Amino acid sequence: MKKKELKANAGEITIKKKRKRFTVDDLDLTLLSLPTVAWFVAFCYVPLFGIIFAFKNYKVKAGKGFIYSLFVHSKWVGFKNFDFLFRSPDVANIFRNTLAYNIVFLLIGVTVPVALAIMITQLHSRKLAKVCQTAVFLPHFLSWIVVSYFVFAFLSTDKGLINSLIRTLGGEQVLWYQDKQPWPFLLTFINTWKTFGYSMVVYMATITGIDQSLYESAVIDGATKWQQTKGITLPLLRPIISIMFIMNVGHIFSTDFGLFFQVTRDSNSLIDVTQTLDVYVYKALMQNNNYNYSSAVSLLQSVFGCILLLVANKVVKRIDPESGLF
């Protein structure tokens, strides 16, 4: 009994030692984190209040405020707002485009940035590496409006650069915004060109942080560049690759509206290959002026994305316990 009491007392002392008082260092860290906490509360948690739109038939009551219109005047309709998406005759095409494009973007987003980051870090000239890094990263800062005008300058029927070259060589001009066949490839190429620079910088930062003595030891052992990449770089990149993969899986039901609407200039001829969830919701919102529908689909995308993120994280942790987002 005495031994048990001694162990219990020792456990209580250990717990008391762990329970430190709020120190000056804790105060500094807390003050530093306040702006971030305030940002997340204001822009991530307060907007969650809008979820209620997905379950209400929102109507404005003249002479009354927003709160009265939403909670008193607007009727509760349950899951009725979700029906408009699944009643659409194009629902199969919408989900097919959304998932197919995102799966392709996901595969390219994992392989191309990693390969390019490794190649740039292998350049002997630091100036050339900086120039290549800047050139690849620059499109990330361009808006889709600017990108759409660049694309139009190349693909315009009358004065586009490509059609001008075709006519100069004696060929017939191509009606790019009416022919849907090349657009899956074009959209994939444009998205890759604009977005993979950010991921590449993340991977380059990870490669730069790798201990150089590992490569020096590999060189002494006679390892080639490919063997160094395969045996050192890729294994140490695996955790960050896993995290980027999991985060992208969480967005698999969401698409970039600017890519599919602005770049294609909302061409009705291309609707079979450009109609995604976000484009469909925007058009339904503009035609019906119904915020309930857009809120319902946004909630649906968020729920599915959260589920896929959790599943992807569990699969990655099962494959490699040291990787994973959480």
Considering the protein shown, what is the CATH homologous superfamily of the largest domain?
MetI-like
CATH class placement of the largest domain: Mainly Alpha
Q: What is the count of structural domains?
A: 2
CATH topology of the largest domain: MetI-like fold
Number of extended strands: 2
Fold blueprint:
Elements: H1 2-18, H2 24-45, E1 56-57, H3 66-73, E2 75-76, H4 83-86, H5 91-121, H6 126-137, H7 144-155, H8 161-168, H9 183-208, H10 212-220, H11 225-249, H12 257-262, H13 271-274, H14 277-288, H15 291-319
Antiparallel strand pairs: 1-2
Written overview of the protein:
It contains 15 helices and two strands. It is an all-alpha fold. The two termini are 42 Å apart. The model is unreliable at 13-17 (pLDDT under 50). A two-stranded antiparallel sheet has the order 1-2. It has helices spanning 2-18, 24-45, 66-73, 83-86, 91-121, 126-137, 144-155, 161-168, 183-208, 212-220, 225-249, 257-262, 271-274, 277-288, 291-319; strands at residues 56-57, 75-76. It folds into two domains: 3-76, no CATH class; 80-319, MetI-like (MetI-like fold), CATH 1.10.3720. The protein is globular.
List keywords for this structure.
MetI-like fold, two-stranded antiparallel sheet, 2 strands, globular, 326 residues, mainly alpha
